[in-house]
Amino acid sequence: MANEEKLVEYLKWTTAELHQAQQQLRELKAAQHEPIAVVSMACRLPGKTRTPDDLWDLVSEGRDAVTGFPDDRAWELPEERPYAELGGFLDDAAGFDAGFFDISDTEAVATEPLQRLMLHLAWETVERGHIAPHTLRSTLTGVYVGATGHDYATRLETAPDELLPYLGGGTSGSLVSGRIAYALGLEGPAISVDTACSSSLVALHLACQALRRGECRLALAGGGTVMSTPHTFHAFAHQKSLAQDGRCKPFAAAADGMGLGEGVGLVLLERLGDARKNGHPVLAVIRGSAVNQDGAGYGLAAPNGPSQQHVIRAALADAGLTPDQIDAVEAHGTGTPIGDAIEVQALLATYGADRSPDRPLWLGSVKSNTGHTQGAAGAAALIKMVQAFRHGTLPPTLHVDRPTPLAAWKKGAVRLLTEAVDWPRREEPRRVGISAFATSGTNAHLILEEPPVEEAPVPDAARDQTSTVAPELPVAWSLSARTPEALRAQAKALVTHLAATDPAPSPAEVAYSLAATRSPLEHRAVLTGTEHAELLAVARALAAGEDHPDLVRSTPGAGPKKIAWHFDGRPADGVTTETAPGAEPGAAFGAAFGGAEFHSAFPLFASTFDEARALLDTHLPTPLPTPHSELARFAVHTALARLLLETGVRPHTLTGDGVGHIAAAYAAGILTLDDACRLAAAHAAAAQATEAGQPAPPDAYEPVLKQLTFQRATLTLTSTAPADTPIASADYWHHHLTSPAPTTPPTPETHTLLHLGALSPEGTQTSAVRALLTALARLHTTGGTVDWTPLVQRTPHPRTIDLPTYSFQATRYWLHDHTAHAAV
């Protein structure tokens, strides 16, 4: 090759490499700024605020959650107190469901309320994200929690010996995140953050960075503070930072200090592309965030205006946005006169300058409702603004007589939200900045954007043709809990939720959401029915602890039983419901004449059945009369086996006769579906010849048997040949197909038998689908675990919907109670 040709080839190679490098750089840059979806939220805040909806009610109604000091924490107060006995408090800071997390009563007492509440919130947040918590075990899910105010054990002079092994970890900030990761089995980063008042917003910033870098695929992020003692009031009172009436008056002329509060808030985050791909809710989008430090200023706890401006500009740059693209700011706004004035000046300089007075930056703070919730402040602000997107309103900020005269409001278009302002969708997405500044000097700012408008699904003509059939078929609602009491509470919560939901979701949507987004726990109940009202009646019976014909629930002391499947290949007369001696009553169900109903109810059954029918047609040597009951039964058996295996039901033994034995071999993994159909077609042809008075020749099966490829069995198939004949061999199948079928299935008495025989719905006045669901419900509630997802899918595919989260059964655990009792 000439030098010129070599040079041209080299230049081509270099150009290709350069293009590839540029593409990788573009992808890397895009990943560094990829929007982060807020998938779900949970909180506990003052004013008996236990959900994000409760928080919206609080702020939209303009309610004040400040109350007197709690009377259930044994607070010892000095005679002279330089502060008002007022603040924002949780109504049940001591409540905890220790048994749910397998924590002993002793360890629960020694564990601070913040850790305990965060465990509740973590489980709840995952469920709110339409994710079954057990599916996150061993995944790269991160935990980033702002944790402040660890004063739970500060009053102890001595501790009872039984508490000593637990107090260290129970009052450690590091375990706030670590305990969540342990309880859920998460293997992503678990990081606790304490930057004082900015802790939860800093935790959110770190979680977003970790998601963009691929350190985790999901992240729980937020923070909280629970005041176990009045020490925080003492400390801030001596700094002269507390309001006389215990209330934050953000940016008001009447501001005279902050009002203290407490709370916890947690959100589930995921890269926007992943959230869409995984079908998770997208409540809002974090476009960018930034964190910085005040540095050396007028004092350690004094706010620094230039630093606040820098962090705001950095967050805007991270989001790729300009100040005029932000509609509002949910401010730090604690109500300290100088601090508020400095914050307003920073907002005027960044967002307010060169802004049209017709489109001002709206300014508010949730602290006017709840008090300064410290480690939860940033999370509470984010949850409030996500709800504001949803409701199209910017709620009012309370306790503002007039804007503070210490700020130069006229230097920019920034207006205080003294009353609610409509905030409808428009052509450009709505966005809000969220600020958190701290006595530590660590500042954080985050840019939150409304969720993208989802495109309407394109109608599917094929799905529409069958959509009228599926809703008329029975479904199963599967509920579970750690205790019988919690199971009843779960049923009650479901009834209350569905009764209040308008329009009501379809029974299939409820069934699918329960199956796909909730973890199967020890105490279980399965409700079967067709109509919404019918299923609600069953749920009410469960909530009341009553029996119902369509309710199957766990039996105390019932242990798991081995399962056997029998594939009946013989022609059936009427209904067959044989079970092995000692089997569960009603555990048998038929299949052959329920095939059409199964086909309508279960997409997986339908696809396998159709595939089997097509393969049978290709392997039949001559056309057979239709309908041919033996091959119809075989197709139903193979489709039903595939469906049941997809539910996770694993039989310990498989038996069968005739073509039923061939279907059992397919279920056991010995034969592929193609080979099973090939063999079943040959057997049916031979049977047809016999029925016509033409005896099948001895070598009738040899051509077919030579074409089979035997696989290694994944399940146990009971042999019908001499013990020395391996099942995965042509000799075995020749013996089976040419020998008389046994009259009864050889099933051990200790097994529960699922008899895949024949059920005539007309003869029993029930549906085959309901019989199948009831049989599996008995397995699910007696030690086995059924994955209901493939059984509750319909055409069109049901969507996941919001459902009540777990009904924790809280018991009071408070260290002072325990030590006082020990002292007595």
Brief summary:
The chain is α/β, with parallel strands linked by helices. 39% of the residues lie in helices and 14% in strands.
Features:
four-stranded parallel β-sheet, single chain, 824 residues, alpha/beta, eleven-stranded mixed β-sheet
How big a fraction of the residues is strand?
Answer: 5-15%
* Helical content class: 25-40%
For the termini, the CA-CA separation is 99 Å
Mean residue pLDDT: 88
Total strands: the figure is 24
Low-confidence stretches: 456-471, 572-593, 759-765
Category from helices, strands and their pairing:
alpha/beta
Biggest β-sheet, characterized?
Answer: 11 strands, mixed
Give the spatial strand order of the biggest sheet.
Answer: 6-5-7-8-1-9-16-15-10-11-13
Cα shape: elongated
Number of helices, where a helix is a run of at least 4 consecutive DSSP H or I residues: 28
Radius of gyration: 33 Å
